[in-house]
Amino acid sequence: MIPLPLGANRPARFYRGGAAIDRFRGAPVRSERAPEDWVASTTTLWNEADAGLTRLADGRTLRDAVAADPEAWVGRAHAARFGADPALLVKLLDAGERLPVHCHPDRAFSRRHLDCPYGKTEAWVVVEARGDEPTVHLGFRFDVDAETLAGWVAAQETGTLLGALHAVRVGPGDAVLVPAGLPHAIGEGVFVVELQEPTDLSVLLEWEGYAVDGPADGHLGLGYDVALACVDRSGLAAEALERLRRAEAAAPEVRPGVRALLPPEADPFFRAERLRPRPEATLEAAFSVLVVLGGEGRLRTERGGSHALRRGETWLVPYGAGRAHVDGDVDVVRCLPPSPEGP
User: What are the structural domains of the chain?
Assistant: First the structure.
């Protein structure tokens, strides 16, 4: 079980973007509708059989490889709690245009209506923020009753809908937690590493001007009468909003050269660390995804050898590789599943 460098996995999406991913990976610019790179994915696109799955060099999907030997890939404790499921999806996401206002169901809604154990809480670690005012939109500024929201969606009153959300300026290094149910949109020019629960469940509140049939495709096959029940319509207070956002400088150092990027509320869903070795960062054995944001360094693992790290690379580190060390003048985001000991 050795760390694996992963190439691009770029399923087609309905919004524009992706040039920043190409620049980051040092690749020629692709289609303008390849705004996402699904890294170490055992998750498929909504209603698709295999689109979105990561394939390994031997031709197997990562999903099949983990199923064949879950303890080696994710560890005994994780497998005992989650089975042969990493319980994590990592993406590179480049918004070439503002994403539509949308939200994701939580676990209770997914179990009740979609026969799925996961919702889609997510988080963004900002890599690049282009333009004069790079912005994300997150949570209603005031309480919105169900009838009002349904009216905005049916009439596609998109200006009113967007204006009802908090607008939050972001810059490189910022991390934002987006709990399931919270309406949100990523603004044009924002390039992020996204961590999320392993689903592709979205309810579109806005679709006009996008390459999607919103009324038909935006409600997960449930109809909007049911789907809109997953939206958190409560006003998000300024203090609560601030708790969802953390600048890298404010992230606590949990070990030398390692900072925890997300607030504790993220821990039941996923964890994210920023590695800036000084002179090295020590990592416990864990299924993890490394996104190399800058510089050059080296990953040394207990049982999986030594590997050079360079900007633009994404690495999958199996649990079976053992304890690891990262050194060098390198900047890495490490993405981890929820702790198996957590709630």
Answer: 4-246 (2.60.120.10), 254-336 (2.60.120.10)
